[in-house]
């Protein structure tokens, strides 16, 4: 995750997804979305656990050879 700045919403977050917990409360989000991220991680399981912790529901998309 990197620094995000939106003019209409003051938001600034930086987090090492491989080594740090996500800086959000349990079930803070209704939906968590990850597209083409998990497959590039050496060990994606800590991030997957964090996504489950902070989201009520979600979607993960990874590439497929098919």
State the main characteristics.
single chain; 66 residues; alpha+beta
Give a written overview of the molecule.
This protein is of the alpha+beta class and 66 residues long. Helices cover 15% and strands 12% of the residues. It contains one helix and two strands. Strands 1-2 form a two-stranded parallel sheet.
Shape: globular
The averaged pLDDT comes out at 84
- The sequence of SSEs as H and E is EHE
Give the class from helix and strand content and strand pairing. alpha+beta
For the biggest sheet, the summary is:
2 strands, parallel
Uncertain parts: none
Strand content: 5-15%
Strands in their spatial order, largest beta sheet = 1-2
Task: Write a brief structural summary.
This protein has 66 residues and is α+β, with helices and mostly antiparallel strands.
Task: Describe the secondary structure blueprint for this structure.
Elements: E1 32-35, H1 45-54, E2 58-61
């Amino acid at each position: 995750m990197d620094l995000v700045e939106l003019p209409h919403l003051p938001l600034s977050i930086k987090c090492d997804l491989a080594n740090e917990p996500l800086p959000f409360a349990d079930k803070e989000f209704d939906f968590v979305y990850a597209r083409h991220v998990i497959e590039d991680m050496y060990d994606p399981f800590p991030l997957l656990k964090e996504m489950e912790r902070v989201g009520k529901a979600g979607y993960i998309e990874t590439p497929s050879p098919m």
